[in-house]
Automatic annotation (TrEMBL):
Molecular-function annotations in GO: lipid binding
Pfam families attached to this UniProt entry: Lipocalin (PF00061)
Name of the molecule in the record: Retinoid-binding protein 7
Family to which this protein belongs: Belongs to the calycin superfamily. Fatty-acid binding protein (FABP) family.
Source organism, top-level taxon: Eukaryota
Species of origin: Chanos chanos (Milkfish)
Residues covered by the Lipocalin/cytosolic fatty-acid binding domain: 6-133
Length: 135
């Protein structure tokens, strides 16, 4: 059985957010604000069903999905694009592929101890983030 991701996670590190946001086409003002944020992830997992909430003082984003089931995702509050998204297990990692306007877009989550890792990818840019478990 894959790892349980449920919990509350506070951002610890954030590497190359600027490059990732430029690849997404996010405007300068929004990028400037986003670089100052330390968002929190709240993950609810029930087997292969997930709700992942990203909470910050600027914007919140929530995504719910079932492993292996493609769905239409509108990235409202992020880059406001529509994409076809599917998340699958790769051993204990969650691997997301988002097909739409941008190439090579998606993310990967994995846990090591009390650290949640997130790699966000768009075009040739990769943003690496870590989160520490708080609850």
């Amino acid at each position: 059985m894959p790892v349980n991701y449920s919990g509350t996670w506070d951002m610890d590190t954030n590497e190359n957010l600027e490059g990732y946001m430029v690849a997404l086409g996010i405007d300068f003002a929004t990028r400037k604000i986003a670089r100052m944020l330390k968002p929190q992830k709240v993950i609810e997992q029930d087997g292969d069903n997930f709700i992942i909430k990203t909470i910050s003082t600027f914007r919140n984003y929530s995504c719910s999905f079932t492993i292996g089931q493609e769905f239409e995702e509108i990235t409202k509050g992020l880059d406001n694009r529509k994409c076809q998204t599917v998340v699958n297990w790769d051993n204990d990692k969650l691997v997301c592929v988002q097909k739409g306007e941008k190439n090579n877009r998606g993310w990967t989550h994995w846990i090591d101890g009390d650290t949640l890792y997130l790699e966000l990818q768009c075009e040739e840019q990769i943003c690496k983030q870590t989160y520490k478990r708080t609850a």
